[in-house]
């Protein structure tokens, strides 16, 4: 009886200990630790300025299919937040620009926003960051709102604190590169005079105090497109070109931002990239599927290696690629509507695996005792899909001269044979940067030399 009693007491104590451990672990996963440190991945922007997109549940499936690490949306849409529930994806939500002034002037409005857009969904939907506005400092038509931006951020933080969520959910905003008066050379980076002391300094002070991130929208494409005669395309695409000691434009742009932050006394604040990417088509010769695939694949590989930048080396920089879908209702130049990894019907414009990029980049390229080749699936019956894969591979960097008439591999003159040659040529070159052998389900790997 005594032994049974001891066993019962020990079992009860063990159960309580296990329960405490479980609760502690759940607290960490729900937000007691930095979500970006817990999940070293590459995020995706889920913009919805379109009238032909699939349901949010389908969008979540597509995010998972490319192994996105987290997702950012440009509002706090209830249908989207419900679709992301239990998805395991950390989520960044946004206070719309038109809501910032009201939230800045009224803590009651801020409390209501958090009560409406955070409390009903968290923690099943893993909200980790609230963006207060999107590129507000780029819009001169709402210049009167600029001084209200930081007070709005402070109010949202206070509203989260009332719910004991201030350490679980970070508060920030997004800033575009036009916020800088100078970005070249990077060491001379500085903010515009009209916002440096009035907006940027108090913003950086807030981010430093709350241990949040300074989010930047950084687009090497726009810098290259504005001056292609003097800026190398390879420099913008993480190629081998070097300018002023930098091997790529993204690092130079980020270091310019870090220099500007340091000039205001806050060089230690953590940075993140809220938007970056490359368009697949439009009114620019550089806007191609091949260049978009190169940029985003190389971007993911670089970031997941934790290389950082020359000014801040050996650092992971949380990053969101723009964008999940092409958005047909976005205004402006044609490129504005063509940044997506996916078409609205869910078909990919190019293959990318945001998790595989990490493995391939860190392991490098090594000779294998079990070589593989990427070939067309023999039973594939869709000739148009196979032709599309062939065209994509040749346009994205495969050496297709050998399958031209008179070439060494022109025979056998069949679509399957030519597609296999092109897909394998592309995959062998790009696999170390995260390319996969799929080509819209028309290809597979084989250990038999074709």
Strand order of the largest sheet: 1-2-3-4-5-8-9-10
Instruction: Based on the coordinates given, report the CATH architecture of the largest domain.
Output: Alpha-Beta Barrel
Supply the number of helical segments: 15
Element order, helices and strands? HHEHEHEHHEHEEEHEHHHEHEHEHHE
CATH topology of the largest domain: the name is TIM Barrel
In this structure, how is the largest beta sheet organized?
Answer: 8 strands, parallel, barrel
Mean pLDDT: 86
What is the CATH superfamily of the largest domain?
Glycosidases
General shape: globular
- Identify the CATH class of the largest domain: Alpha Beta
What oligomeric assembly is this protein in?
single chain
Radius of gyration: 25 Å
Uncertain stretches of 5 or more adjacent residues: 1-32, 358-369
How many discrete domains? Answer: 2
Describe what you observe in this structure.
- The protein has 450 residues and is α/β, with parallel strands linked by helices.
- It folds into two domains: 26-361, TIM Barrel, CATH 3.20.20; 368-446, no CATH class.
- Helices cover 40% and strands 12% of the residues.
- It is built from 15 helices and twelve strands.
- The strands form three sheets. Strands 1-2-3-4-5-8-9-10 form an eight-stranded parallel beta barrel. Strands 6-7 form a two-stranded antiparallel ribbon.
- A hairpin with a 7-residue loop joins strand 6 (180-182) and strand 7.
- Helix 6 (107-117) packs across helix 7.
- It is globular and about 75 Å long.
- Residues 1-32 and 358-369 have low confidence and may be disordered.
- It comes from Taxus chinensis.
- One of its GO terms (biological process) is carbohydrate metabolic process.
